[in-house]
Design a protein that fits this description.
The chain is mainly alpha-helical and about 110 residues long. Helix content is about 80%, strand content about 0%. Keywords: Amino-acid biosynthesis, ATP-binding, Cytoplasm, Histidine biosynthesis, Hydrolase, Nucleotide-binding.
Length: about 110
Amino acid sequence: MAEERATAAVLDRLHATVLARKGADPSSSYTAKLYSRGTPKIAQKLGEEAVETVIEAVRGNRDGVVSESADLLYHLMVLWADAGVAPEEVYAKLAAREGTSGIDEKNARPKAG
């Protein structure tokens, strides 16, 4: 359980850091540069990191998966901050789904169209 709290704390600190970079000089911060390029670029970078994570998993490169996962989480935090999403909202959504079958949860979602 302590490990879970430590993980959430790391993510919370990362989120605070990326929030603090909003409005910063893009020449002084990669995060500020992402913000200055807008939501489409932030989303593109998140997608790239997701693909890179998948590639490392398919290669069976455990260290690569760890490294790319860190990049993926960072870019996810930037996207959340850009969208005005707080980590606690995502944690709450996950907690609400805890103990529910993934199939049941998916079937309970509103149908598109």
